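Narrative progress, year one. The postdoctoral researcher (J.K.) led the effort to move from monomer predictions toward full complexes, under supervision of the PI. The following entry was the first complex the group processed end to end, covering 219 residues in total.
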Amino acid sequence: MNQDELKALVGQAALHYVTPGSIVGVGTGSTVDKFIDALAASGIAIEGAVSSSVRSTERMKALGIRIFEASQVESLPVYIDGADEIDHAGHMIKGGGAALTREKIVADLAAQFICIADESKLVNVLGRFPLPVEVIPMAAAQIARRFTAMGGDAQLRAGCVTDNGCHILDVRGLAINDPVGFEAEVSAWPGVVTVGVFARNKAAVCLLGTSAGVKTLSF
Ligand code: 5RP
């Protein structure tokens, strides 16, 4: 199976976590696109979705799924999203699609984060994938220097303005051995909007697409 087929497989498998009549938290990316398509085709009557990006909102609206603002709900049963990397404890790197801030906000409303990913995303230590960090533009250079001091190399993502009007630094060369501590530390730096380590609120379940089928990892 190729990567696209593995993404479709886990997108379909995620339907198991969707309760009819509920509002579902929906992430962003090519794997989530497969989930959105599967959801629309499934006939499961949900009340609607809270979306983490303009991209997912447009896709869901086009398929007739009602969109709620995050401010309209107090909680969600599940948040379903992809990841750029996930470790064996459910900590993730996210933000390859630049939607990390809204993803963290919507995920925080949910009782369970269901991660859908193909097997290439499973790692022992986070950091091989360049870590996305959303920053206030005027702080980008000083935040980049802080990453240099940590042994990383932070580059501004060219031409990228997020849904929130901010910029993305992609940081290479980090081995994130303590994801919870790292997330807390970087989140406290002035000018950081969101760091793409999702560790405090990690995945509860990962549906991993493998050539042998969907593997369910529970954390
Ligand atoms: C977007 C994300 C995505 O979940 C992540 O980039 C994975 O994307 P894909 O499913 O296309 O591999 O964090 O900000």
